[in-house]
# Entry
Amino acid sequence: MKKKNKLGSSISSIEGTWKFDNNVAKVFDKHVNQSIPHYHEIQNYIASLSEWFMKDNTTIHDLGCSTGETIKKIINLNVTNNYKIIGYDTSRKMLDLAKKKLSNKKKNIQFKCVDVLKIKKFGKSNLFISILLFPFLNYNERKKIFKKIYNSLETGGAFICVEKIRSNSSDFEDIFNQIYFDFKLKKNLTEKEILKKAKSLRSSMNLYTEKKTLQLVKESKFKNCEVFFKCFNFLGYIAIK
Ligand SMILES: C[S@@+](CC[C@H](N)C(=O)[O-])C[C@H]1O[C@@H](n2cnc3c(N)ncnc32)[C@H](O)[C@@H]1O
# Structure
């Protein structure tokens, strides 16, 4: 019989619409590694890519920063330039955990408990990052945010983003989703937990094909865009102004 996983059961006990609430925040770092393939590596890749855009005196914006794990990896690069990082999230608990995690880092880090959709304008920047926030935004919301990111970026600045996408065909969507469930089972989540999470996400996610996702980057006038990560229905890309 499959071993009951305490972490997973706490997450999947949340019924209805998925929320990044206090229960989720407390177990987020472990849960996300059980739920997303190559999560640590994705964060490491983003930190590595960031190094090229951490200009002196720039501000880095992390949209949907959760517990600040990616910010920690960026700081651990030990880039000596002066820079500031602002992490945005709607979950106060996630940000409290991020602050605690990063309290001994002597860097200029700020956290803002805010809905990114409500931000009128970001300050000038050479780098935006966002891991898996966009699946929770619809197409129009994405469009508006992309425009604000583009307007805030200096020429040559980058937007590094990781998304969950839909496959181009129903055949692949079915295969990839089943492989995704296999992945979660291998990470010790139970069938019941996996199904509950899938149910809770039904009304929360807005997923588009790779083509439509990247089309928006193009329409937002970014000069160059390159995919740096793809694993089944997860996609990472970097766009440069
Ligand atoms: C999958 S997690 C992101 C993980 C994180 N980027 C990392 O590197 O580990 C999505 C996060 O986005 C936040 N979020 C969702 N919608 C948001 C919004 N409209 N504005 C700000 N944060 C939002 C959630 O609270 C959650 O912490």
